[in-house]
Amino acid sequence: MTRVIPVLTIVLAIVAFWYGMAIHMNAPWQERLNERAGLESVAFMDFAQQTWAQDKPVLPAPHQVVGEIWNATAALELTSRRSLAYHGWITLSATLLGFVFGTALGVALAVAIIHNDASDRSLMPWIIASQTIPILAVAPMVVVGLGSVGMTGLVPKALISMYLSFFPVVVGMVKGLRSPEAIQLDLMRTYDANPWQVFWKLRWPAAMPFLFASMKVGIAISLIGAVVAELSNASGGGLGVRLLTGSYNGQTIQIWAALFIAAGLAAALVAILGGAEKWVNGRMGARA
C-alpha cells in the first residue's frame, strides 16, 4: 500500500495535467468552431468538454485515447487489419525476432572481443561507429533493398531491430566478462583451469547482471527499430503503419493509441526480462 499511493498520486497528477493541456492546445480550434456556430458565451466546463470531444484534436484527452484502444482491440476481430491487437502482434513478432538476433550477435561479439586482442582493437570502433548512423536513414535502405531481392515480411524489420539491440548487449557483455578481478583469474590458473572452464565457471556467471541490464535496454530499442522499419513498408502492417496512416489523416487519437500500445508492449517485455533475471539470480544463489 505504501508503494501504491505514491504511484497513484503521480498518475493522477499526470492525467490532470494532460486534461489541462488538452484544453489549452485544443482551445483555438474550438473557439473558431463556436464562433462559426454563433456561440458567443460558453461556460468554462462546457468549453472544456468541447475541447475534450473533438474528432481530430491537437492533443486528445485521456478518455479519448482509452476509448480508441478499447474500440480498436476488444471491439474488433483480432484478425481485422483495423485492430490494434493485430498490428501490435506484427510489431511484437519483429521485435522478438530482432531481439533474439541482436542478443546472440552481441554475446558472440563480446566473447570474441575479450578473447582476442585483434578483435578488441578492430571491432569495437566499428561497433560504436555503427550506432552513429541515423536509424531513419538505414531502415528504408534495408527494407527496400531486401524487398528488391524478394525478402519481405518479418525478416527485414527484425534486422533493423537487431541493428539497434545488439549494441547495448555487446557493450554490457564486454564489461561483464571482464568484471572478474585478477585475483579470481589467478585462482582459476592455480586450479589449472583451461580457457573454457575460466569462461564458463567465472566470466559467464559474473557477466549475468550486465547481460540482463543490457537486454532490458536492447528489448526496448528493438521495439523502436521494428516500428521505424514498419514506416518504410506500409503494406506490411504493424504499429508503425498505424502511426503513419494516423499522421497522414490527422487522426491524433489513433496515433496516441498506437503509441500507448507500443509503450505497453515495451513495459511488458522489460517486466518479463526482470522476472527472468530474478529467476536466474535465484538459481545462481544471488541475493534478491
List keywords for this structure.
single chain; 288 residues; mainly alpha
Can you give a write-up of this model?
The structure is a single chain. The protein has helices spanning 4-36, 44-51, 62-71, 84-115, 117-130, 135-148, 154-177, 182-190, 195-230, 239-249, 252-283. The protein is mostly helical and 288 residues long. Helices cover 77% and strands 0% of the residues.
The span between the termini is 21 Å
Number of β-strand runs: 0
**Beta-strand percentage range:** under 5%
Radius of gyration: 25 Å
Helical percent range? Answer: over 70%
What does the largest sheet look like?
Answer: none
Quote the average pLDDT: 90
- The general outline is elongated
Contiguous uncertain segments of 5+ residues: none
Which structural class do you get from the secondary structure elements?
A: mainly alpha
Helix-strand sequence: HHHHHHHHHHH
* Number of discrete helical segments: 11
